[in-house]
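Example for tutorial group B:
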């Protein structure tokens, strides 16, 4: 079964994604070197898994990798309110420089919750690297911790998108591009 026929339009192709990920990695490497300790990449599960894998391989820095899970989405396309952390880090981030790696920042409430959580765990700085950003939908204006920076791959129009890690009802994550799902497949 191919899921390509469920896609209305492709917003970013694999080549465009790869080129942008390399640029982001170069920027993060330049901004964080030299570091006395490895940079901590915290992937937000599950949507960031492909982005994190590609980004980590392009970074020219020593890194450690962990994942965190925050839930506020059911199987629909609209957030059901304030997120909660359902699976926490294994690594100790106290005194460490952290980059939160996200698939998409939408209302901002997930990332705000995660920044506060990492701050409470004593991280020295928290940056955010999101593959996509939907600034037109922002409701929560999060503040980055210490000298943390905000990196984003692409500004995303206000569509529900899937692929490159992002799902609808746990499907479509392995599409190598980002596309807009046909409404008949999520209604
Ligand atoms: P926020 O807390 O910023 O409203 O939502 C962030 C989370 O919502 C993302 O990590 C992602 O899981 C989900 N999300 C927001 N917009 C989209 C979208 O267009 N497609 C998919 N698949 N997930 C989305």
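The residue assignment follows.
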């Amino acid at each position: 079964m191919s899921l390509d026929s469920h896609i209305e339009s492709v917003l970013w192709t694999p080549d465009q994604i790869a080129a942008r990920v390399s640029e982001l990695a170069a920027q993060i490497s330049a901004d964080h070197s030299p570091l006395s300790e490895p940079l901590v990449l915290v992937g937000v599960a599950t949507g960031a898994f492909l982005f994190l894998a590609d980004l980590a391989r392009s970074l020219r820095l020593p890194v450690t990798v962990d994942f965190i899970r925050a839930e506020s989405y059911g199987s629909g396309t609209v957030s059901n309110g304030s997120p909660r952390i359902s699976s926490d880090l294994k690594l100790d981030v106290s005194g460490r420089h952290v980059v939160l790696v996200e698939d998409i920042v939408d209302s901002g409430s997930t990332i705000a919750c995660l920044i506060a959580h990492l701050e409470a765990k004593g991280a020295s700085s928290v940056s955010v690297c999101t593959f996509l950003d939907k600034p037109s939908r922002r409701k929560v204006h999060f503040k980055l911790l210490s000298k943390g920076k905000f990196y984003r791959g692409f500004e995303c129009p206000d569509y529900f998108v899937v692929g490159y890690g992002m799902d609808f009802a746990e499907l479509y994550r392995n599409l190598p591009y980002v596309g807009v799902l046909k409404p008949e497949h999520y209604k």
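The pocket of guanosine-5'-monophosphate is lined by residues 44, 47, 72-73, 79, 83, 102-110, 160-162, 166-168 (CB under 6 Å). Compare this with the pattern of hydrophobic and polar residues in the output above.
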